[in-house]
Write a structure and sequence with these properties.
alpha+beta; six-stranded antiparallel β-sheet; disordered C terminus
Amino acid sequence: MWIGTQFSIFMVNKPGVLAQVLGELAKAKVNMLAMTVMDSAEHGVMRAVFEQTDKARQILSRLNMPFNETDTLCVTLENKSGALAIIMEKLAKDHINVSYAYCTAGARGGRTTGVVKVQDLQKAMRILGQGQKKSERSNSVIRVNRSAGH
């Protein structure tokens, strides 16, 4: 589990805008770890966690795409039924409110990434870390990116 920088990118809801953003990120070889898109009549919001946050920030700025950044809890999960439910139950038991969550699809028998927005990241990490075996904890990665919001 780690703390990842999530970008919320605000796009005009018209054909080609999402394709343009994704195409420019791909050209720059910015790897996307997780993504979700929501829409309304006027605009869409793409939430994404990227491997190369600095490059993503530069591309979005160059495209004049309004965005903001927030820290989210990223959890590596088994790609099986109930994996995210277990995480949610642990957080609920300790009264951690989840604002929203989404996952990558993952591969059959492989791993997936769950992205969870909570108020108290450190407490959530402490709670979820309690269930790990000692050997797993030593292999976990915690990455903190405290970039200024836009």
